[in-house]
Amino acid sequence: MSEDVVTSAAQHITRGDYMSAMSIFEEHVSSSPDDPAGYHGWAEAALFEIQENGNLDDKGNDRINEGQVQSYLRRACSLAPENADYRAAYANALIEFDRIPMAVRELRKLVDLGTSSEETDISFHLYEAARLLIESIDVKTNFDRSAPIARQFIRDAVEFSLLGLGFQSVGEAMEYLVEE
Q: Who is most buried in 46, 97, 130, 174, counting CB within 10 A?
């Protein structure tokens, strides 16, 4: 992606003009369909717009298609499968859109990516995703962690948080928690 495109989109994002940044990235996607940065940039700007301004119009319809956000993030991951930032952004969007099982699968792929490369640090991504996952589960279950969905996915969130803290496995972390 050219520096001009990135700079222009970043300026719009900094000013909170996410829709203009999305337009810039959309033009880049049209002209460079094999560049994952355009898809990722568009989706990130869309997520900023949704988070800051909501996603419902006056009639109660989505302003931004969540399916397109997911599709663009998935496309970025398929074009750059070794990019941990793209994979984490996709997983976090899935959590935000209440697609918890899909998010957990993507986070497992992120763990595999981090395990396969010593150069790829995924700890921050996993820790942040674990936090988002717990928040989502709490909201979904009205803070009832005994609910079936909570029981199903809290284990994953705890595992991701421990890996995010830099432990190689849950077993390694448990060694420090067991008193002798």
A: 46
